Amino acid sequence: MLKTLKFVSQVIWAVGMVLLGTAAGAMYGWHQHGWVGAVALGLVGLCVGAFLAASPMLVLQLLS
Rounded to an integer, what is the distance from CA 47 to the centroid of its chain? Predict the structure, then answer.
């Protein structure tokens, strides 16, 4: 049961970070540069979100 809860929380964290990074990049790109910026910065946000999803301790250190 505890392993399942840990796995579910890790999946939620990873999906959340990737979605947050992609959405933030796409919104900023759309606001500043239109469609091309939304796609380009959305991809950048996807990569940054994947990096942050891989290391939750880094995110916590950056926040503190």
Answer: 8
Tokens of 59: 């995110």
- List the structure tokens of 19: 């979605």
Task: Tell me the mean pLDDT in the region 3-25.
Answer: 94
**pTM for this structure?**
0.83
Q: How many CA atoms within 13 Å lie on the side-chain side of 22?
A: 11
| CA distances to 7, 27, 28, 50 from 3, in Å | 6, 36, 37, 23
State which amino acid sits at residue 8. Answer: V
Are residues 50 and 34 in contact, defined by beta-carbon separation less than 8 angstroms? no
41: tokens are 């910065």
